[in-house]
Amino acid sequence: MMASGAGKAPQPPGPGSGSLNGTAADLPNIEQELYDYQMHGKMCKKIAQLTKVIYSLNTKNEEQEAALQAVSHAHQEELRRVTTGTCTEGEESVVLRTRLSELQETLAQVQVDFESYRVQAEERDRGVEAELRRDYEEKLQVLGLERQETQAQLNTAHDESLRLGRELETAGEAAQCLEVQCDELRRKGEERGKGKEEEMERMRLLSEEVKTLRKGKERAEEERERAGREEREKWERERAVREEREKWERERAEKEEREEWERERAVREEREKWETRMKEVTEEKEELKRSMEEELKRSMEEARREERRQWEEREEEEKRGMSTVLRERVRKAEGEMEGSLQRLNESKRHAAKLQDRIQDLEEELESGRRRVSGAEGGAKRAWEELVVAKERLLLQEEELQSKSEELLSRGVCEGCVCVNVEELKGQVNKLQSRNRELELQSSGRNNDYARQHAEALASLRSEMVRAQSEELRRERKHAEVEKGQMQKEMEEEKDRLLKEREEERDRLQKEGEEERDRLQKEREEERDRLQKEGEEERDRLQKEREEERERLQKEREEERERLQKEIEEVKGRVTTQMEGNTELVEEQRESLNQEKKRLKEQADEERRRLKEQVKKAIEEVMRKHAAELHNAQEALRTNQEVCVRVQEDRRSGEEVCRRLETEREELRDQLQQATNQIWRLEGVIQQQSQGGVASETPPTCGIHCSHLREDLQHIQEEMDRQRESYQREMTGLRTDKQRLEEKVLELNQQTQENTDRNVLEHNQENTDRNVLEHNQENTDRNVPEHNQENTERNVPEHNQENTDERIRSECEERLRAELKAELDAAVATSNQREQELQTQLADLQSQVERKAGPIEGDHDDSEIDRLRREVQETRDMNQRLREQLKEEPQRHTAALQALERRAQEELQTERNRLHTLHLLQLDKQGTELSQQYTEWSRQLTQRHMKHIEDLQTELHTHTEMMALQQDLKQQNQYQVFERQLDESRCAVLELQRENTVLRYTHTHRHTHRHRHRHTHTHLLILSPFCPLYSSSLLFLSTLPGRERRRWEEKESRRRERRKPND
């Protein structure tokens, strides 16, 4: 028996074995696991510290970039303000240039500060990484020394493993402690249930907050006409606050769950330590009982874990369902609010259209009134002219009658007188008939025109009033109907939301109570079921143990030799397998360390790459700023030149207008003088006709004077027609100018809309392409693809600029060609009109000369000289008019040239405006791209950190799984070996006992009967607790007296040696 115990000592025992040597040898594995766990925890803490430092540096870097962007934006705003203020404040250009230089210096200073800060941050990062690496190496050395010390302590503890036998009494207390811990775990579970109830309370508070927010939204909808924009901003702020609150609560819940999981893991580890210790100190014969209890605990723990997991899953599902329902309701409310806002905007647009229609109708009514008043004024003027012509005819008739009477009274040349009288009477009759016809025509035309115009004006006014009243009535009715519908919908939606909110709250409360009751019932039922199953399993295991013992007694002789051989083979296999496992573990650890180093190097490279990209982007932005400054200065100079040219053109236009006004006044004066001369000539002719110098000369003189007067009237009418044609030409030129200006504005608007649309489409395509490519690209190829993307985006931008310039040049050329064609046409028409006027003047002059010839031969010298002077004056006047007509085309061409210059200048200003707009669009796009790049870099760093954390968690889980698999394999192997050893030892003991019993039954039956009875009763008492001890007592009872005393002496000496150790 001693030999067997000595031969068993060097075996590598496992946990759960019944021998004391095996339980003591398992302590190095436990300490190794604790060492690995502590190392892992320290590594996790260090990695967390590193991530915090990196995050703080990244945030500082982002803040500095934001400050730089703010400075650049301020710089751009200052430049824009300077460029807009240069047109009116040319004297402040020096101050603005100094301001620009100061801004450039500040920008350069900010860039220098940013570079220095970036260098300091990089040096600080390197210093922190070096310190952390040095601390990590020092701690690794300290942990190696501590490991050696713990190994030495474990070696000393291996010698003291014998005194663990006395800790059997403390095992019961440990079991009680475990029960207390289980009660504490249950209480923690209940506290967690309370915490979940608190979470439900928070959810209820959140739902109430959502209710209040919806109420505020409804109130904002009622006040939408007054503060729609403020309501939307308030809702966005509240949504951001709610999202931050939800995020904060989610993070807090995750933190609490993580802390609870860590506490549970610590409790689980503590429980595993106690279980391993219980396994170490328990004896061989309590193995089945302990295994049964462990299985029962494991099943209970698994059931509890499964129950907790199911409860958490249900809780997550409920939270998810609640969040989805609330999100859908909020989305529905947002959609309804947007629909109501759209309807309101449509009604507003409709009202604006109606208002515009009313204004157009009013304008048409005013224009009709003006036309009616103009027609009335024309009718009045025609009537006045008719009255004047009638009076003139009456005067001529009286003159003719007086002349005829004078001729009759004189009695000279009765025949001639009769002929003249008859002629005069015929002329009088003709004049009277002509007067009546003119009166009838003028009266009929005036009456018809007035009646038609009055009827048309009345019908138009009534139709306008009726259409306006019907439109207003229909719009008012439609607005009232829409207002009533919107109020009804709002009230119905409010009632429906309140009802749904109350129903949801009642349903959630009922479901929570039902779920709590059901969980309590299930927990109690599970506890009862587990207790029943434990008792049944205990009974079944006892029965199986008895049956197994009987079976083993039968098979022990056959299995003895085979077990010994298998034990030796298994020993060799186990040693080789342990060595191979240790080598595999070391290789895996080395591979994991290499993977960790590789990931760290990748992260460093990525960080350097990102820093280089940021530096390049900053340099590019600086180059763009310098180019923009240069362009702004050039635009400033061009604007100054344009302002000077515009002022000169304005002054020249004012001078031309003044000159035209003076010429018009001179022409009016000359016409007045011509009319005065005509009236004076008529008066002279009348005086001559009244004087009666000769009998035959007055009629001829009167006839010639009347012809001359008619010719002068024709000349005056021709001059009026020329003036009217000139005015019409001027108005036509003005309309052509307005039409050209409108065309220029339309072309400018079209070019602006095309450029804006192209820029917007290009920006949208760039943003969509950027988002898609950033989502699809991998971490290793992010930066090269981004650089390629920048180049690809720059190429379309350059092409877009070229197309814009080409379109602008084509529009300018087309507009210039149209202006030139219209100007040529206007010049040609003016030349043709001038030629016509010259021909008419020549005809009039020839007629005047032909008619002035007889007068010179019939009158006396004084009258002829006077008439010659008058004719000379008329000729001079015609000459002046001809000269003015010759000068008129020059003025017309000068005005056309001024208009062309003004159109060119407006085109140039429009081109400059489009250029500045394009530059602003490019700046905006650049800022958006920089923001997208910063966002992408931040997301990339977060993705890298998340990937590193995932790799760390995978590494941790892999190491834990490998350790668990190794422990399970070793435990299974050790359990098999220990079971085989126990079976062989039991078989040897049974054989020895049978041999001794058979040897000494007959010789010592009567002498040891009493002792045998005592030992038998003692065995009956101890058999359920320690079957091995009972078998040893049976063995002692069968020994003879000498050998029994010798064995007792050995046991006493062993106890004495054990006491000092205790």
- The dominant shape is elongated
Span from first to last CA? 25 Å
Poorly predicted runs: 1-27, 692-702, 778-796, 852-860, 1016-1031
Average of the residue pLDDT scores = 67
Helical percent range?
over 70%
By oligomeric state, this entry counts as single chain
Strand content bin: under 5%
Number of strands: 0
What does this protein structure show overall?
- Among the domains are: 14-164; 1001-1061, no CATH class.
- The chain is built from 14 helices and no strands.
- It has helices at residues 2-8, 20-25, 27-85, 93-159, 168-222, 224-281, 287-410, 414-691, 697-776, 782-858, 861-1000, 1009-1022, 1027-1038, 1041-1061.
- Mean pLDDT is 67; it is low at 1-27, 692-702, 778-796, 852-860 and 1016-1031.
What is shown here, in short?
It is built from 14 helices and no strands. The protein has helices at residues 2-8, 20-25, 27-85, 93-159, 168-222, 224-281, 287-410, 414-691, 697-776, 782-858, 861-1000, 1009-1022, 1027-1038, 1041-1061.
